[in-house]
Every structure is written in structure tokens, then in C-alpha cells.
Design brief:
The complex is a heterodimer of chains A (about 800) and B (about 220). Chain A contains 25 helices and 24 strands. Chain A is of the alpha+beta class. Chain A is globular. Classes of the chains: A alpha+beta (about 800), B alpha/beta (about 220). Chains A and B meet through helix 1, helix 10 and helix 13 of A and helix 2 and helix 3 of B. The complex binds adenosine-5'-diphosphate and magnesium ion (MG). Adenosine-5'-diphosphate (ADP) binds next to helix 1 of chain B.
Amino acid sequence: MLKSYIITAFRNIKKHKTFSLINILGLSIGMTVSLLILIFVINEFSYDNFYPNKDRIYRIAVKWGQENNIMKFAGSMPAISPAINDAFPGAIAAARVLKAYNGITVERKQKKIKEENACYADAEYFKVFALPFISGNPETALAEPYSVVITKSIAEKYFGNTNPVGETLTIEGDLYKVTGLINDIPENTHLNLNMFISYKTLAAKGEKDEHPWNSWGSVYNYVLLKDNVSPQSLKQALGKELEANAGEWFASRIEFVIQNLTEIHWINDFRGDSGPKQNKMYVLVFLIAAIVILAIACFNYVNLSTARYLERMKDVGIRKVIGANRSQIVTQFLIESLMITFLSIFISFILFQLFRSSAYSFIETKIILNENYFFSLSAVILFMIIIVGFIAGVYPALFLSKFSPTEIIKNKVVSGVKHFSVRKVLVVVQFIMSILLIFGTVVIYKQIDFMLNTSLGYDKENVVILNLISPESKNKYQTLKEKLSEHSGVKAVSGAFTVPGINSRENMGVKVIDGSNEDIINLQTVAVDYDFVKAMGIKIIKGRNFSEKFGSDINRSVILNETAVKMLNINNPIGEKIGMPKGNNKMEEVTIVGVVKDFNLQSLHNKITPLLLYLEPEKYIAMLVKYDPESQKDVLAYINKTWGEVLPGEKPNYIFLEDSYKKLYKSETKTEKLLVFFAVLAIFISSLGLLGLTSFAAAKRVKEIGIRKVLGASVSNIVTLLSKEFVLLVVVSTLIASPVAYILMNKWLQNFAYRININVWMFLISGSMALAIALFTVSIIAIKAALSNPINSLRSE
Amino acid sequence: MIKLKGIEKYYKNKFIKTYVLRNINMEIKEGEFVSVMGSSGAGKSTLLNIIGMLDVASNGEYLFFNESVHKMNEKQLSNLHKSYIGFVFQSYHLIDELTVYENLETPILYQKVKSGERKARVAEILDEFKIVAKKDLFPNQLSGGQRQLVAVARAIIAEPKLILADEPTGNLHSEQGKEIMELLKKLNANGTTIIQVTHSKENAEYGDRIIKLNDGWIEE
Ligand SMILES: Nc1ncnc2c1ncn2[C@@H]1O[C@H](COP(=O)(O)OP(=O)(O)O)[C@@H](O)[C@H]1O
Ligand SMILES: [Mg+2]
């Protein structure tokens, strides 16, 4: 029986080439995109999933600061894990991990290699992360100083195939005992480690072995909680401990954040975090895109199958007359759709292999190829065959199998077929999705265009940013500045703590001295040099710029922006004195010497902040060089040369201010590109469906078209006749899509403090684009039908 | 075998009922060969379809082997017509995508006959109808007469007790038509009940008895 089903399905696929081609093409594209996306999504959700008890493992991170001046850190106080192990009964174990950031040199026999993924870990580490030991005792492996647990690949590198446990390794010149061997840790983890040195080694080596409560760096604290112990209770216990040990002032500025292990991959706003990060929204958008594209392809199948009902009806009727039940007919159709799906997934798989690496590098994701990958790939493929095969197949199968045999045998054309509305609905849904994607692209494009071209209050052209990375470059700032200023093409040079596109930020609480107001107001403060205002082309609207002529500007004078003046509520700012914290939190008096026009130091996601510029050479992290555009080449060469002279062996690390600013919108630019891609696919697959539907409609009406032509209808009459309905459907789609598009994109625009308005023309453009493409598609068929010689179609009677 | 009591069939269009069959009473015994005649639109096909359970009557009672067809559910009906009734049509109604062999095999496939037996039955029928050489051809590679031959072969492959033939020779030359009629006669001689619709007096004579339909009424 199955053989007969398959033979019939195969012959049907072969016989109806247009139908099969359109479906296979659409489904292949849809499935390729879905395959790429689903593998990506599975990969992203697999992070740290392999650890036993992963649901009960947490990392303790901290938030520091108050109100709108909060910083988040992935690392936390080294005192935490010992304290939990001593006094928190809800935990099974807690352990610290300190990555060896600069790598460690490992030696054995002739080998001497720098290992990048080593760490120092507490004795309890393998209680928290219960990775099975191939050899060695997990209980005691990290209990002594100068012990190290290594992974299989490290063992193979230094010991070949012999068991390394009990052997020694030289690390950074000291002798270590290998106390444990574990399997390589899967790559999909935020802690990509291969050597675990006992934490006690740090103390033994004479490094400070304090367990401070009031400071922290790069030490991560992990804890495995007992069943039914809430992370909240841990947070409270730690809070109390902190207050007892570090005092109220400190404790009131700290909030512990207890992060589940599997969430860490999704957390991307904590400083000093480890491992690759991913944005959940981003993944979700991808998932939706995959579903949309696949759905559009499935709808094609449904539409084209049911559009063929006339020719399939006879077949179904005969089969019923000679004894088929409905379920046997349904099976027949399902097998056919499964076979089309199967062919499509085969092509998709090839496309997937071809485009995999470029697609994933475009979205900057690393897909980890291990057994799990092959398992997920097979699972996803199977899942897609079943889902698409059935989703696309079930409705046509049920619809086509229901015809009663008499209607067919009597050669009666079924009239008033109501399923036709289903087809219309699906076409409308396809075009709604396509229009949404086009509209999204248009809005994002306009917003990016706006952000790149709007006036920012400073002049981003002809400025190059030179990063001061090495301590030497910071020390030699004055020399560099003097030398660079000597070039005739250089118009201004200034150091700065904050530059557009480079993420550094300092806030201070300041207050007006005149006594009218005791409030401390939080301002963003930027350490700059005398020529900052000039280099950036910022406009001074009151008072003056910093100037060396006055000799007293360092530590004495500040410049505010308009927003800051408003916030401080000063009527005549010039000459007004304010207090700002210097050094040990003491308020020092400074004078406002100038007010600048507001400018966007950050991206346009954010409102302009109240800003205070002050002179503080020690804080510069970058230099700005404003040059004459005519001599750009000369200036850059001169910078290179000078940098090498002042800092031997060092090369300038530079970026144009314009590019640095553009980088702020990297994620938007990327989203835009992806959206264009998805929109093109969606509209392409939808049009394929339309192409199929029109050709069926034309085929069904050949005779009518022939008669009309004989009666004198023109080509355009015929084209109109065939296109009218589909064009109407696209218009309806535009009408339905518009409000949805408006709501969605308006929501997206809320991410920006400075944004474009959604205009009527954006709807018009999206709608007419869809319409033009649809019309073009339909016309191909319609014109062909209209041009055919009527004699041919009429003679066949 | 078949008893029709006061069978009527009408189609409702808005509020107007158009009668196609009126007060049909008849009985057909097992082993009979009945010819139904009448002008076009008289309701012959409708009658045949009702007897073949492809269509249902609007009024009246239909007993098949003394069981009331009206009271059966979809499944029983389907099983009944699967195993008792074979159909032959004027326009053959072969499945275009299947070869002669596969067309013959399909009815017994649907009845879940085992593969071995299926092969034997198809081989036997091919032999009997002398179409072994054509078994791998598709319907559109055959002449009209050959197609109808295959259609008859397909109708009897499941060994039905009743064959309903709706103008089986309507599209054939008289020569081919004769061949088909001889075939039906032979089947009838072997015990199969046959009801055929025909326009030709000559072909009608193959039957034991002729029923004439006129505008839905049986002409006495
Ligand atoms: N679904 C239907 N709706 C309305 N009228 C129908 C329908 N099917 C058949 N008829 C009418 O019933 C009459 C008998 O048809 P039929 O049994 O096919 O006649 P024939 O004797 O030619 O085989 C015809 O007039 C036909 O128009
Ligand atoms: Mg008829």
C-alpha cells in the first residue's frame, strides 16, 4: 500500500512541474532559513546546560551605587564563598574562581606553552560543578596549594596517553602536582577553562590572602544550593553578613544579584563578565522570523494544492468509487506533502551546509560542533519534515478528500466552492507578514539615517580619535599633544575621558554654593583638555572656553552644558561657584567660566545628560585630533611617525570620530540588514505562491480568455481580468498590516530618545512595494495568457 | 438482492424541488442482467448511483440483501460498496497517473489484500482479458476500447456480486462495444448480477429484462 502511495505521489510531483517547483523552491528557502535559525537558537540555549544540578547553581554578582548611578559587576567579594561555606546551611558548597587573565606558562620536558584558559579555584569547586573525574579524587583535588586539575586535552598535550595524576607540571616556574583529570568541558559554557589551580596556591605564593568584604575585582563566586532553598534567602543572608563586616555606608551601596548558571549567557550588562553573551530579544526576533518565513512557504503549499482541486477531484472520486475510504485518500495526500517536504529539506540541508559558516559569522555567533550539534541537527530536520509535511499537507488533504464521488462522476463542476476564502486569507496573511517586514526595514533605515545625519551639537567630521591604551601613552600625553600640534594641518588637539562611541562614564554629585539650594545634583562629568571644545566644534553660548592665558583653570574652572545649567537652576551661570567632589570625597569650589550648547556625547538612544567639563589630564583615555580635510593624509602619516618617535615600538590605535559614532548603532545596522534579508525572502516566497495561483487561475480560464479575445478584448483587458483579484488582496493586506506595523515600530522607536516620526509615506512605500512586486508577478502569467492565440484554447474542445 | 420501494430523488433549488426520480419500485434478484433505458436526463445515472450507494434517495426505502441502506452509517456503506459493487462508466474513469497494472491493483489494495494474492489476482485478470502486453502502459496510451476493457477488469477484480455499468459502450465503436457486452454477458453467466444503462436497443437485448425510465418515472 505504502509503495502505491509513494509511486502515485511521485508521479504527481513529476507531472505537475510548476506546482512542485514553486513549492520545493519556497519550502527549501524557508527551511534553510529555519534550519539556520533553529540551530542558532538551540546553540544559544545550550549554554551551561550540561552541568549537573545546573538549576541550583548560582553566581553571586553585585550592583554598586545609588539611584541613577549604578554599576553592575560580575565579580564579587572574595569573602563571599568562604562565608557561605562556613555559615550558610542552605548551600551545599560555594567556590571562588579567578581566571588567569594574562595566561600562564606551562612547562614539561621540552614543552613550554602559554595556556590561556587556566584559573584558580577553591577546593569546593568540583562540589559546585560536579564534573566527573576520570582520575583523581574530586573531594581533595584542590585542597592543597600547588595542585592542579587538568582536562583531557591538556593532559594529552603534556603527558601523551599516560595518566597524569600524581605527575608534576611546571607552571610559571613552580612545580605543581596534577591531582585530577576531567573530560574537556564543552565549549558552550561561560567558563571556558581547562586548568584548575588550587586557590590556596595564591596565598602560598605570597599574594595577599585577604578575604575582604569591602572590595572586589575579578573573583567570581559560585554556589550550589540545596533543594528548595531560594536564592532570595541567600541574598538576605549575604546582605546581613556584608553589613556586619563592611559597615552600613558600604552595605547600603551594594546589592547582591544571584544569577542562575543557565542565565549567565543572557546577562550582558555586568562588567568583567566571562564568556560569549547573547541577547534574548535578538534570539526571539530570529525565532519569529524563522516561523514567519516557514509559514509563508507552507501557505504556498496549501494554496497551490487546493487551487488544483478541479484536477484532483476526478482522481479522488474514482478512488472512492473503487473502494477507498477517506482516510486512505487523506494518507495519499499527506504522503505527497511529506515527499515534497522531504525533497525540500534535502535541498535545504545542502544550502545549510553551504551557507552555515557565512551566516553564523554574520550574526557573530559561534556554533559549537559536538555530538549535541549533530543530534540537534537531526532532531530539527526530523521535526521540520513532520511539522511542515503535516501543516502544509493536512488542510489540502482534508479538503480534497471530502468531495463526494457522484459529483465527480456526474462531471459536474462544483460551484460556489467556499474553501476559496481560505486561500484568500492565506494570501492576505502572507502579504501582511511581507509588508510588516518591509515597513520595519523602512523605519529602521530612516531612524539610522536620522541618527547618522542629524546635527549632534558637535562636528564629527575630520576628527580622529587616538586611544591612550598603554600607561606610557598616558604619561607621554603632553609630549604627544605638543608634537602633534606642530603640524600645520592639525587644527586642535585635546585629551578626553569620554568620547562618542567609547564607553566610559563618570558621574559626580555637585551643588551650587550660593546657599540657595542645598541639593546635590548628579551630573555627568568629563575630564577634558583646553582644546576639547575646539576639537569637537562645540558652540560656546556664554562665557569662554578654558584658556591657558588665565593660568588658573586647572582645578578651578568648569564649563557646563545648557541642560546642566537648567538642572542646577542658575540664572547667571558665568562666575557662579559650585562645589564638586575631588579626591577623598571632599567638596571643592570651582567656578563656571562657560556654557556650551547641548551636544550628544552618547548615542541618540539617550537624552542629553547634564554635563560638566573640567580639566584633568590624568583621566584622559583618548586624544582627539581635529585636522584640515585637505591634509588628512599628511596628518595621519605624521601621527604615525610622531607616535613611533614618542613611544618607541608602539603604533597609534585610532578611529575616526565619525566611525566611532557609527559604531554606537552597530546593532541597529545589523538588525536592518537582517530585516532586509528576511523581507526579501518573505516577499519572494509570497510572490512564488502568487505566481502559482495566477497560473492556475489562467489555466482554468483559458477558454474564457479565448472567447473574450475572439470577442475583441485587448491584452490589458485580460491582464486586468486576471490581476484584479490578487491586487485587491494585496491592498487588503496593506490595510490590515499598517496599524500592526505602526504599533510594532512605534514601540521599537521608543528605544531612542531622539527619533523619527512614522509617516504616511512609509505605509505607502511598503504597500506599493508589495503591490508592485505582486503586480509584476501576476502580470508575467496574465500577459502570457493574454497573448496566446485564442484558436489554440478553443480548438481543444 | 435489491429492493427499491417508493424511491424518490429531488434537488432543492431555493424553494423549488426538481424531481429526478419518482416513486421507483423495483426488485432485482441475484444473477439477473438488467438494462436501464431512457432518454437523456431521465434519471438513469441517478438511479444507478443510488443503487451503487454513491448517492442517497430523498424518499423511499432501499434494501440491499434485505438490509436497509438508509440505516447504515458511512463506514458500513463504504465496506458494503467496496466488497459487493463494481462500477463501469461511459468515460472509463481510470486513474491517469497509474499504469494498467496499478489501476487493476488499486481496488484490492484499498481492501488490504495481501501482496502475494494481489499479484496472482491481477495476473489472472490480465490474462483473462488478454491485456498482459499492456500492463505497463498508462491509460492515455490505450485506445478507448482497451481503456473500457481495463475499466471492466478493474470493476471485477474485487469479485463483486453486482456490477453497475453506466453507458459502458457510449464512447466506443460498435465493434468495441460488442466486445464489452460479450464480456458482461460472460460475467453474468458466471453469477454476477449486472445492471447497465444503455441507449442502444441492441445492447439492451443482452439483458434479461429492460427497465424504461421516462422523466423519473418507470414506464410500465
Ligand atoms: N446536483 C444536481 N442538482 C440539480 N439537478 C441535478 C443534479 N444532478 C443531476 N441533476 C438533474 O437530474 C436529472 C437526471 O440526471 P441523470 O440521472 O444524470 O440523467 P441521465 O438519465 O441522463 O443519466 C437531470 O435533469 C440533471 O440535470
Ligand atoms: Mg447518465
